[in-house]
Amino acid sequence: MLSNSFKSLIELLSDRAQKQPDNQVFTFLKDGEIESGSLTYQALDRQARAIAASLQPITSVGDRVLLVYPFNASLEFIAALFGCFYAGAIAIPTRPPQNAEEWADFGFRIQECQVDIALTSAALIDKLQNSWLGWLAESADLPPESKKLSWIATDRISLDSGLNWQKREIDRDAIAYFQYTSGSTGIPKAVVITHGNVLQQCSNYQQALPNLDYWGVNWLPLTHDLGLVAGIMQTIFAGNSTVLMSPIAVFQNPSRWLKAISTYKATVSGGPNFAYDMCVQRIKPEQITDLDLSNWQVAGNGAEPVRPETLERFTEMFAPYGFRREVFYLSYGMAEATLVISGDAVNETSTVRFVDEQALQEKRVVMVAKGQAGSRAVASCGRAFPGNRVRIVNPQTLAPCPPDGVGEIWAQGLGLSSSYWQRPEETEQTFQGYLADSNDGPFLRTGDLGFIHDDQLFITGRLKDMMIFWGRNFYPQILEQTSEESHPALSANASAAFSVDVEGEERLVIAQEVDRHAFRKLNSEQIAEIIGAIRQTILLEHLVEVYAIALLKPATLPKTSSGKVQRRRCRDRFLAGTLTVIEQWFCPVSERLDPTDLTSLPGIEEA
Q: Does pTM surpass 0.90?
């Protein structure tokens, strides 16, 4: 059933509860292994009505409500989310704060969104209330009206109260929730997501994969757009079922993810690129003796840049267990798009291409043969989703780029958001893009750089992250990958490349985590060897000098909840001296290179 059959997400769940009341929709696995709770469509509908009935006397349509649930309370979170929808309130999913920095962010959201009510679980409510009051006592930043926060434990609400629920008229244009941006490139912003946005996204997905029988496994945080829309909303839209687990359970033991796919014969599951690397690096054969991945039809890979070598390594390791390379589904999206802008299944001819790296730095696309000197592999993120339009635009002139030109990715479609909450200037800058030659628009300006080749979208980097060294453009992802591969003691998907101003000149800094196994045996001699390897490899491969290297302890690089590297936050912490470093190295003045004369270095020949 297409999205225009429903006016709201309330109608969607009500329809499922009426037509398939006893069908199981969500099951939660405690520790990623043991079933500890489940919901049928009817049970979810009843809980949502009860929560809504408790909210309606103290809220009006459009009031904002925080949802603060731990990873192991996914079922309670989903009920609270739909309780907000049923009440006509705007839900704001957020993680329980764990430290002073996160409490400050929590307080910022309360002030920005003018929140009076927070929903949570009975197991957490006392701890959260006390922590909140403790933080308030030490904070002078919030105005008095922002400090009045009422906490409600939704799992203490009687189901009988649902009899008092009053249905409110909610249409497709009504705001369903705020999806905060990851903060990977700046201050997190509240993206306004309507009921219609979500329904259209789900419809687009169903049209893109019309023959898919949706049975899911989801471990991604439900506060993240990928976990929320792909894991929860798409399940209900499809009228099928998904098994849920905590991301912590998967981080502790990645085999739990694949075992759940095997046990429940899931057809749909996915995660960011790093999750597939994590499986290859940490799963042992003895953990997966009975693994069967033959039912997996859509292995989603999104939320961060896709590395072609990851696809190859994962396929090679898990093909004996029934995994097929063609089930990889590579996609591109962002919070401002509700979820997906483009996506497509993998096939040998269209997925991975090889381009000339020097031309790419000049914002040109030159296809070359695999293995050619100076080539770089790039992975396709598929075609624009049904109903979406994608254009590649010069971010300075706002004119469309020529074919195979690199520019900013602009997108348009009913499933995309159209604004940030109470940020008119940022809304105009991001959501009101118009082409200079035709005044075609409005488009969502993604801030990402890419190109279209053979109708496939390829992502090359982030506009704000682009760096210029010695007169040439550099994408941080390329330098990060080079750093990670420069020495066996370094972790993959655990580095940040950024620039700092040194005496008026832009200089390169690499923050790089050491592998947890290598960390235990690290000594001063090895540290010097690692720093030398990073410095030399980046110089020889990219002809750019590293100004500083911060070797970090395992699992300390600033990242978002979905695993995206927060380069700006990393840069800020580097400058403030608050990174968790093993060693920090700066290039001595006497060793700094002259960019006009590099021919004396080993491995570099004069052109």
A: no
